[in-house]
Amino acid sequence: MKKLNLLALFLMLFVTACANNSSSDAPSVEKAAEAVSYSGTGTLNIAPVIFAKDLQVREAIRKECQLLTKLSGFVQNYAQDQYAGINLEAKRSTKSDFLTIEIVDVPQYKKNAWAGRGGQWVTIKGSLLRKGKKTLSFTASRASMGGFMGAYKGTCSLLGRCTKTLGKDVAEWLKNPVDGATLGDM
């Protein structure tokens, strides 16, 4: 009887862990522009986030994980108290701060239940053009094992956690940008 109850408990934990594969707290670009209230000064223009030109990214990650829009949305959410306005998918500007971010590394292999999930990571490089005068750069990386029962979370969920934390790292760097900074798990 105890073994049956224990088996039922493990089955329930497994189903619960598998059911939540999406990052529900990820901002959408459309909602983020409407719901954000700014309290800082100046404007931050964020160029569309891109994958590095030579980076091989699995098609499933490109289509399903929405890393490009999530990352800029998280930067916007965490930096809203520093700027009077933040424009996503903006073009280059010499009158305000202009931030570019490029994803330079993500896992390139497909995992399964037998091989194990292992860690997922996102590495980015970025640069900030301060009012058209000085360019400052950074490199950042974050990895996630998924926490408790993390092996049963989906790839997009784990990569979403990484982009959320990277958004926070970049927003913190924007408070006092230092050229050549390394952020996150680097």
First CA to last CA: what distance? 49 Å
Number of helices: 5
Reading the helices and strands in chain order gives HHEEHHEEEEHE
Class derived from helix and strand content? alpha/beta
Beta-strand segment tally:
7
The overall pLDDT, averaged over residues, is: 78
Specify the biggest β-sheet.
7 strands, mixed
Write the layout of secondary structure elements.
Blueprint: H1 2-19, H2 29-35, E1 43-46, E2 50-51, H3 59-64, H4 67-79, E3 85-88, E4 97-105, E5 120-130, E6 134-144, H5 155-175, E7 181-184
Describe this structure in words.
This protein has 186 residues and is of the alpha/beta class. The protein has one domain: 3-Layer(aba) Sandwich (Rossmann fold). Helix content is 35%, strand content 24%. The chain is built from five helices and seven strands; from the N terminus they run ααββααββββαβ. The chain has helices at 2-19, 29-35, 59-64, 67-79, 155-175, and strands spanning 43-46, 50-51, 85-88, 97-105, 120-130, 134-144, 181-184. Strands 1, 2, 3, 4, 5, 6 and 7 form a seven-stranded mixed β-sheet that branches. The radius of gyration is 19 Å and the shape is globular. Residues 13-24 and 28-34 have low confidence and may be disordered.
